[in-house]
Every structure is written in structure tokens, then in C-alpha cells.
Amino acid sequence: MGACDSKPAPKPKPKGPKKELTFGKDPNLNIADFMLKEAKGETLVRTDLKGQQFLIEDSSDCNVYLLDKLAALTVDSIKNCVVVTGPVEGSAFLRDCENCTFVVAAGQIRTRDCKNCKVFLFSGTEPVIEASKGMEIGCYGLQYFEIANHFEKAGMSVFNNKWSEVFDFTPAEGCTSKNSSNWKAMDMATRNHEEFMKALVEKEPTVAESVGLGSGGVVPITHGRGKACSEDAEGSCLLLIAAPSSDFGRVLTKLLEWEKKMEKEALLVRSRKVALTKEQSTLCFGREADKKKKSTLIKECSQVKGEILALEFNVLGSSGADSVKEILKEEALSWIAEGEVAVDQSKNLFSVWKEDQ
């Protein structure tokens, strides 16, 4: 009787992928191997961080190269240092830093009580500064041997860099976050990221050769929100590429080659790579001026399954906006094996679903 009423043993649940243990939980890792503390005048190069978090604190006049995928980065109380990192999958916290230069890629970044620092930045979300002054922020432009692999492992799209979309929690009196005097965007047209990396390579030639350190890399150099035209200005141009995901590696390679060549005709302001539903495409790209007529852009987007890459340009060319737009479209068509390319003036994509992209 009891045997008949007994329930069958539950089936074992399938095991998911094994998560990486942080150094606080993995007995095989020593916490001291993942921090730099109370250092002065040291050069540290690490390419074996095993996806762990890293801590830098109470140090001065140091050069720190963390060229691997990291779980998180925390920097506290440093002066006159250079900190260069690969992709930080989670958060990067910079606190009480003074006269430092950072080359950092992170899912999100926050600074607090920082003074006179330069940050060459990749941020997957809007960067946040708090109680910080004299901050200069520009686009991340780093190259080392494994950088593409590390971005992929971190699950970070190189197209989704929001470095210029800074939110200031503590703007000066009379200012807002949008016109904050606590930070300014670097003029990326001056190629200052290249000059900085060139100086680093000359200063540390042995380090540079061993890890392939240099400028360029896999992140498109965007000129930032401050270089954007008004929403429907003639010089505003949104290049949309709808293609299978397998094509985007080639698109990236060609874009990196091409954006330097075209910078006198069109500045790449921002980029996004995202999967949109048909309804989202309509919301982003529907033409308010003619609601009865379906936008050709929406039609082209809906015909291709896969992700959509949006590239916002500020057209500068003396040949005229229409001519440059045609050049952009023809060039982009040569980058993909299949799919669609279209040009539109609306930039609503960059103000809708901020954190989803």
C-alpha cells in the first residue's frame, strides 16, 4: 500500500554552465594576486586575471595594465597613475582619484570624488560622475592581442558604447547634468587617443611588444553626443544596416578601416547594435510627416531577420548631405553578403530604450 502511494523520485535538474568563482569564493585563488595596494612608481602588467575582479588603492605614480576580461574594477585613492584595462564585464568604480588617466571598458562606470582625470572610455550604459571635477572623457581606443576575444567573452557589443552620454549627479549650481561644467568631452577628431597610446608604447616598449599594445582595437571611434546635429537637421544621417549576425564581423572590420578615411565628409557620432521587433522599428523610424505612407526603412528592416546596426553620422562634406548619404549607403552595401541598408534622418533610436541597447 505504502509502495503504491509513494511518489516517484524527482528527476535531476540539468546542470547549467559552471559559473566562474570570484577570488572570495575560489580557494585556489589568492586575493593578494588581484590587487595593487600602497604602491609607488610601479609598473604592473597582468594578462592572467581569470575573469576575476581587481582592486587598486592608495597608490601613486604607477602604470597598471590589466589586459584581460575582468568581472569588476574598483580604484580608490590613487594619484598620477595610468590604468589600462580590457573589458570589465560588470562595474568599474573610480573613487578619490587625482591627475590620473584611465583607458577603461566596462558594462557600467561610476566616478566619485575624482579630480582632473582623463578617461578613454567604453561604457555599455550611461557613465555616472558624482562629486567629480575637471574630468575629460573620450572614446576607448585600445589594441592588444586578445581584445576581440575578451569583448566577446564579456558579452559586450563593441558597437554599444555610450561614453559621451554622461550623467552628473552633482552638477554645479546653475547647471544641469546635460550642461555640466564638471566634465567635457574630448575632441576625438584630434586623435588624442592615438597620441596617448603612442606615448605609452614609447615609454614601455617591452610591455607594448609583449602584449601587442597600441591604439585602434575593435571599438569604433565615435565622436559623441555633443557632435550630433539637431534631430532633423539636414546634416543628420542615420545609416541602418539590417543583416544576419554572421555579417557583423566584416562590417566592423570595414567600418574601422573606413571611418578614418571619411572623417572629413562625415563624423561617426554614435552607434548601436540591437534586435528590434517590427513594432519597435515603427516607433524608431516611422515618419511623423507622412503617417499614411509606410517608411521604406521599416519595410526593409522587417524583411531581414537578425540584428540591426544603426550608425549616426554628422555630415560635413562640401559635396552636400544627399551625396554623402549615397556614398554611405553604397559603401555599407559592400560590407554585407545579404540584408538591407537604408539611410534615414530620424535619430530616435538613440533616445528610446536607453538601457536595452
TrEMBL record:
<dbReference type="InterPro" id="IPR012945">
    <property type="entry name" value="Tubulin-bd_cofactor_C_dom"/>
</dbReference>
<dbReference type="InterPro" id="IPR016098">
    <property type="entry name" value="CAP/MinC_C"/>
</dbReference>
<dbReference type="GO" id="GO:0005929">
    <property type="term" value="C:cilium"/>
</dbReference>
<dbReference type="GO" id="GO:0006892">
    <property type="term" value="P:post-Golgi vesicle-mediated transport"/>
</dbReference>
<dbReference type="InterPro" id="IPR017901">
    <property type="entry name" value="C-CAP_CF_C-like"/>
</dbReference>
<dbReference type="Pfam" id="PF07986">
    <property type="entry name" value="TBCC"/>
</dbReference>
<protein>
    <recommendedName>
        <fullName>C-CAP/cofactor C-like domain-containing protein</fullName>
    </recommendedName>
</protein>
<dbReference type="InterPro" id="IPR039093">
    <property type="entry name" value="XRP2"/>
</dbReference>
<keyword id="KW-0342">GTP-binding</keyword>
<feature type="binding site">
    <location>
        <begin position="90"/>
        <end position="91"/>
    </location>
    <ligand>
        <name>GTP</name>
    </ligand>
</feature>
<feature type="domain" description="C-CAP/cofactor C-like">
    <location>
        <begin position="17"/>
        <end position="171"/>
    </location>
</feature>
<dbReference type="InterPro" id="IPR006599">
    <property type="entry name" value="CARP_motif"/>
</dbReference>
<feature type="region of interest" description="Disordered">
    <location>
        <begin position="1"/>
        <end position="22"/>
    </location>
</feature>
<dbReference type="GO" id="GO:1990075">
    <property type="term" value="C:periciliary membrane compartment"/>
</dbReference>
<keyword id="KW-0547">Nucleotide-binding</keyword>
<comment type="similarity">
    <text>Belongs to the TBCC family.</text>
</comment>
<dbReference type="GO" id="GO:0005096">
    <property type="term" value="F:GTPase activator activity"/>
</dbReference>
<dbReference type="GO" id="GO:0005525">
    <property type="term" value="F:GTP binding"/>
</dbReference>
